[in-house]
From TrEMBL:
High-level lineage: Bacteria, Bacillati, Actinomycetota, Actinomycetes, Kitasatosporales
PANTHER family: FERRIC ENTEROBACTIN-BINDING PERIPLASMIC PROTEIN FEPB, IRON III DICITRATE-BINDING PERIPLASMIC PROTEIN
Protein name listed in UniProt: ABC transporter substrate-binding protein
Record keywords: Signal, Transport
Family membership: Belongs to the bacterial solute-binding protein 8 family.
Entries under InterPro entries matching the protein: ABC_transptr_periplasmic_BD (IPR002491), Bact_iron-sidero_bind (IPR051313)
Keyword match Repressor: no
Principal location listed in the UniProt entry: other
Localization (cell): Cell envelope
Domain Fe/B12 periplasmic-binding: 77-249
Domain of life: Bacteria
Length: 291
């Protein structure tokens, strides 16, 4: 996913091929960016502030989810709504010259209805970054880095070095005995919980590659999650639970929280070196916390 060289006859044109294979064209390099909140948070880490953001069908249509925003300051930032409640009139009124979305494969723009996605692409150039299970965390991060650089962000060697160091810290920590059993989950309600399949999430796959022993949930129809009772989750005997902190996740039952150590987990990590460093250091600290 790289910016294409502009022809001499249109030296100010901007072209970019996104993860869908779509060639996105603008008259000049975009500067007024609208973005899905996850992408907006990554833009901020790369030194680019979006003009506004939007959420998904899971999100509050009236307020952005701070758990998804990473380090992105939400105060004073335009929020265009979420899912079917996306306010297209407000988004168009802001006159963005590029919309940055994510996709979980298949070319579908995540967070908006297919009708809204089609309408957006008829009026605004749209770049989509693939964050699906078929990609490694490094590939997702690289896709966004190339986009950020095409938008004028300078490479950040220090951030990359800090990420490499965080990976090494976690690798060493995960290799130490005893090795705790780690389970990633998203509370559904008081009776049930969604257990994440490690291979289905680039961030969890990265943890596995670094030696973190993630527990696989039982087989079931769900591609990304297995939905089970809390007693079934407890029977897997996790030592550490990575708990979904997004606003739409339910509360963790008190009895489960009393018996299992927990650490925060955002399944929609901003695809940036800084966010990934923070995530890996959070896991390292959790593994180092005495039982």
């Amino acid at each position: 996913m790289e910016a294409e060289s502009a022809p001499e006859s249109a030296a100010t044109a901007w072209e970019f091929t996104d993860d869908r294979g779509h060639l996105v064209v603008a008259p000049r390099r975009p500067t007024r960016l609208a973005a899905y909140i996850q992408a907006g948070a990554a833009l901020w880490d790369h030194g680019l502030r979006p003009a506004g953001i939007f959420g998904s069908s899971h999100d509050d249509p009236a307020a952005a989810d701070p758990a998804k925003a990473g380090e992105l300051p939400l105060a004073g930032l335009a929020y265009y709504g979420a899912g079917a409640a996306l306010d297209l009139d407000a988004l168009f009124a802001a006159e963005p010259d590029l919309l940055i979305a994510v996709t979980y494969g298949g070319g579908q723009t995540y967070g908006v209805t297919p009708e809204a996605a089609k309408h957006l692409e008829e009026h605004i150039p749209v770049v989509a970054v693939d964050v699906s299970q078929g990609r490694t965390l490094g590939q997702v991060r690289e896709s966004f880095a190339r986009l950020a650089h095409a938008l004028g962000a300078a490479p950040d060697g220090a951030a990359e070095a800090e990420l490499t160091a965080a990976e090494q810290r976690l690798r060493l920590c995960a290799a130490a005995d005893p090795r705790p059993r780690v389970l990633a989950l998203s509370p559904a309600d008081a009776d049930s919980v969604h257990l994440a399949r490690p291979h289905a999430w680039p961030d969890l796959s990265a943890l596995t590659a670094l030696g973190v022993p993630l527990v696989a949930p039982p087989e079931s129809p769900g591609a990304n999650w297995a939905t089970v009772s809390w007693s079934e989750a407890a029977a897997l005997a996790p030592d550490l639970a990575l708990v979904d902190v997004r606003a739409h996740a339910a509360a963790l039952p008190a009895d489960f929280a009393a018996t299992v150590r927990t650490a925060p987990w955002n399944p929609e990590l901003p695809p940036s070196p800084q966010a990934h460093t923070r995530f890996l250091d959070t896991i390292t600290a959790a593994l180092q916390t005495p039982a």
